[in-house]
Design a protein that fits this description.
The structure is a single chain. The protein is built from 23 helices and 25 strands. The chain is of the alpha/beta class. The protein folds into three domains: 287 residues, Rossmann fold (3-Layer(aba) Sandwich), CATH 3.40.50; 153 residues, Isoleucyl-tRNA Synthetase, Domain 1; 97 residues, Nucleic acid-binding proteins (OB fold (Dihydrolipoamide Acetyltransferase, E2P)), CATH 2.40.50. A six-stranded parallel β-sheet has the order 3-2-1-11-12-7, with helices on both faces. Strands 16, 17, 18, 19, 22 and 25 form a six-stranded antiparallel β-sheet that branches. It has a four-stranded antiparallel β-sheet with strand order 5-4-6-8. The longest helix is centred in the middle third of the chain and has 31 residues. Bound molecules: ligand ME8. Ligand ME8 binds next to strand 1, helix 1, helix 8 and strand 11.
């Protein structure tokens, strides 16, 4: 029988800082859902990745003294980077997209062009607020108390040429989608979207920038880069092969079954993304689910507040499965939840060590002690004593499924742990140690008691697999579950385990955590991390990527003489040069070196420039090339020295 396709995604993460427990939460939830769907027999496509363009990344790379590409490569692929974290957390994604992947880049250019050609993207003027010291544009709504959200300083009115997407055209269609269908969940988020964004009037969206370069160039208008959200949202289709030849899964997996996203980016996914797809004439995803945040001390974790929780430290101390389990057992997925180390330790001790761990170790050791590790076939039921437990086991899968289908991970796990709790009570009610005193008379009855306990462990083991893949398999190994009784089908019935099941005692899967000791260790680790307070991922000085010789030879480096030089109005960084490049026509280059040079000291000097780069606009003025300088860091301060040539070298002399 053909498997039903199921396509699920996480947001693609910004590789600007190390990921923290909040990002891990979202990815673990998606992983649990993907594994659950695979268990139920679907053919799953689970996509995650990284969102690598934009001004923020460009700025961070500059601070680190490396190219943006080198910077993101390090955070994505470097030691303890994003890929390492997902490996550690046992994330089973089928695909990983990076928005710098070349197939994605060219697909975005095609998507942008399609929307331009169909009239949904047009050229206009972006009017916004400008922060001079940060050289950043902001919209009115991004300002904090009317000031720059980054540095808190005064902003001024500014304009730049930009492309716009006719978002306003789709306002009614998007509103109907939100109000009349169950596209967006939890439903409480619908009112927020409609009241805060649609009712006040959806404005067209600025979808290109000229004030920085680290983005996907608009190929028919160089100098403009595609707005990072248009680039990022499209990842969900380019990763399937939309407008590219890298993959061929679009017809199978699109529309997505669900996008899991954090609540602050619901707006992009439930308004802008459907409108973009409407413009492209493509089907809409079936659902967007906006999950809550993990808070620390009541506030959002953020690098700048210094209150992020490092998943590496927790996974290393408590184990990956315990951490995965805690995240989904403790917090309702649609709402915010308060993270604390105390809650983590308590969940491990109560649910895992006490309830599940004890049930497993007691059962396995009793089967070992009373039956030499293998149950006899002859077993005696006692309908009165077994009925309730058997019924609970038989109906567990259906109750769990109902919750999982609503992404209610916490409730699905609560269903499993209700049965585990009931089984522990069943041990006390049936007192196996008393039955064991007279094996001749009570052997068959004792065997049935043990069998029922193994069945609880079997069904629970199968249903816990999406949450704790390695530990749940170990539970199933210890109770001697055969392949056929580890399946989704078998989890729906009582009695799938063969009667003569042989158990094999293994390691204590969930050791009790000594809370005081663990909390002290965590405190120490947090202090050590603060002391270290070095760059998040150390960016090692490395050589840049190789370029082939022919490509390099196309670069037109030449001597240029400075005819005039002045500060650019409203900019603290930029100098404007008028240059003689040997062609007989003046060349204008803007360069962000005002911090190091005064205009007057450069007039008459002979510099080195690359002159065949596409023109860029900075602060509304065209820059045709780039001056060459050497950059290094001294006592934490960036230093820059222009490459100044001997005056006797004529303008236009080529570098070779
Ligand atoms: O938003 N608790 O990337 P991002 C729960 N690149 N979730 C949290 C969290 C917390 N404390 N902190 C962050 C972006 N997240 C874009 C997405 S998708 C086309 C582009 C979640 O790295 C956050 O809510 O800033 C978001 O869903 C995800 O991590 C990625 O955040």
């Amino acid at each position: 029988m053909e498997k039903k396709p199921f396509y699920i995604t996480t947001p693609i993460y910004y590789p600007s800082d190390k990921l923290h427990i909040g990002h891990t939460y979202c990815t673990v939830a998606t992983d649990a859902m993907a594994r659950y769907k695979r268990l139920t027999g679907c053919e799953v496509m689970f996509l995650t990745g990284t969102d690598e363009h934009g001004q923020k990344i460009e700025d961070k790379a500059r601070e680190a003294g490396v190219t943006p590409q080198r910077f993101v490569d390090n955070i994505v692929q470097g030691e303890r980077g994003i890929l390492d974290l997902w490996k550690l957390m046992n994330i089973s994604n089928d695909r990983f997209i990076r928005t710098t992947d070349s197939y994605h880049v060219s697909a975005i250019q095609k998507i942008f062009k399609k929307m331009y050609d169909n009239g949904d993207i047009y050229k206009g003027t972006y009017k916004g607020k400008y922060c001079k010291p940060c050289e950043s544009f902001w919209t009115e709504s991004q300002l904090v108390d009317g000031k720059c959200p980054d540095c808190g300083r005064e902003v001024q009115d500014a304009e730049e040429e930009a492309y716009f997407f006719r978002l306003s055209k789709y306002a009614d269609q998007v509103r109907r989608l939100l109000e009349d269908t169950d596209f967006l969940e939890p439903r409480s988020r619908v009112n927020e979207m409609v009241n805060n964004f649609i009712k006040p009037g959806l404005e067209d969206l600025c979808v290109s920038r000229t004030s920085f370069t680290w983005g996907i160039p608009v190929d028919f208008d160089p100098g403009h880069v595609v707005y990072v959200w248009v680039d990022a949202l499209s990842n969900y289709i380019t990763a399937l092969g939309y407008d590219n030849d890298q993959y061929d899964d679009y017809s199978k997996f699109w529309p997505a079954d669900v996008h899991f996203v954090g609540k602050e980016i619901v707006r992009f996914h439930s308004i802008i993304w459907p409108a973009m797809l409407m413009s492209l004439g493509e089907p809409l995803p079936k659902k967007v689910f906006g999950h809550g945040w993990l808070l620390l001390d009541g506030g959002k974790m953020s690098k700048s507040k210094g209150n992020v929780v490092d998943p590496y430290i927790l996974a290393e101390m408590f184990g990956v499965d315990a951490l995965r389990f805690f995240l989904l057992r403790t917090f309702p997925f649609g709402s915010d939840g308060n993270f604390s180390n105390e809650a983590l330790i308590q969940t491990i001790n109560v649910d895992l060590a006490n309830d599940l761990g004890n049930l497993l170790s007691r059962t396995v050791s009793m089967v070992g002690k009373y039956f030499g590790g293998r149950l006899p076939e002859s077993q005696a039921e006692d309908a009165g004593k077994d009925g309730e437990l058997v019924e609970l086991i038989s109906g567990l899968r259906a109750r769990y499924e109902a919750q999982m289908e609503q992404y209610a991970f916490q409730n699905a796990l609560a269903e499993v742990f209700k049965v585990i709790g009931r089984a522990n009570k069943y041990i006390d009610e049936n007192a196996p140690w008393v039955l064991a005193k007279d094996m001749e008379a009570n052997g068959p009855r004792l065997a049935r008691v043990m069998y029922n306990l193994l069945e609880v462990l079997r069904v629970s083991g199968v249903l816990l697999t999406p949450f704790m893949p390695a530990s749940a398999q170990e539970v199933l190994n210890q109770i001697g579950a055969c392949e056929d009784c580890r399946t989704w089908d078998s989890a729906g019935v009582y009695g799938a385990l063969e009667k003569g099941a042989a158990v094999r005692r293994g390691d204590n899967l969930f050791p009790r955590v000594d809370a005081d000791k663990a909390l002290a260790q965590l405190e120490e680790a947090a202090q050590a991390a603060k002391r270290a307070a070095l760059p998040d991922l150390e960016v090692e000085p490395q050589l840049e990527e190789k370029v082939d010789f022919d490509t390099f030879c196309k670069s037109d480096f030449r001597a240029v003489k400075v005819k005039a030089c002045e500060n650019v109005k409203k900019s603290e960084k930029l100098l404007k040069f008028t240059l003689d490049d040997g062609t007989g026509t003046d060349r204008q280059i803007l360069s962000g070196i005002a911090k190091w040079y005064k205009p007057e000291e450069l007039v008459g000097k002979t510099l080195m420039a690359i002159v065949n780069l596409p023109p860029r606009k900075m602060m509304g003025q065209e820059s045709c090339g780039m001056l060459i300088s050497a950059v290094h860091t001294e006592k934490g301060e960036e230093q820059l020295n222009l490459l100044i040539l001997d005056d006797k070298i004529p303008a236009g002399a080529k570098m070779c």
